[in-house]
Write a structure and sequence with these properties.
Length: about 140
């Protein structure tokens, strides 16, 4: 896979995606990245890391495999609607990072940057009160 510096590789008409997405800790989130129909048969990928040239591919499709799941992350290449869909499950605070939706091609890959944020799980404290009843019994 070839890489490029950010900004030179994303042609807006070729692939796009949300700038930011968020999901709840211990929940899931789905990212949708539409792409041009001309990229239908190309491999699609999802990688993690702020640097385009150093991001780590977490999941990748191939022409034969249009849905791939690896660990808590899955990628689906919807070749009818020309849409890359990535789902991240069982979210952790450490999943907050920069990710890239991408299309593998000869030369420089296409990619779009997505900032993922994780909302902390709400911790509800259950208050339990214990009441003590005192009964005075006078015995004569």
């Amino acid at each position: 896979m070839d890489w490029c510096v950010p900004g030179c590789c994303t042609a807006e008409r070729d692939i796009s995606g949300p700038r930011t997405v968020s999901g709840p800790e211990q929940g899931s989130l789905t990212v949708q990245c539409p792409y041009a129909s001309s990229w239908k048969t190309y491999n699609k990928w999802w990688c993690q890391g702020a640097g385009w040239s150093s991001c780590r591919i977490l999941v990748q499709t191939s022409a034969e495999e249009q849905k791939v799941k690896r660990g808590r992350v899955s990628i689906t290449d919807d070749q009818i609607n020309f849409l890359i869909m990535v789902t991240m499950e069982d979210l952790r605070m450490s999943d907050a990072d920069v990710y890239w939706c991408g299309i593998e091609r000869t030369g420089i890959d296409l990619g779009v940057k997505v900032q993922v944020t994780i909302d902390p799980a709400s911790t509800s404290v259950e208050e339990t009160s214990f009441f003590t009843t005192v009964i005075n019994v006078n015995v004569r």
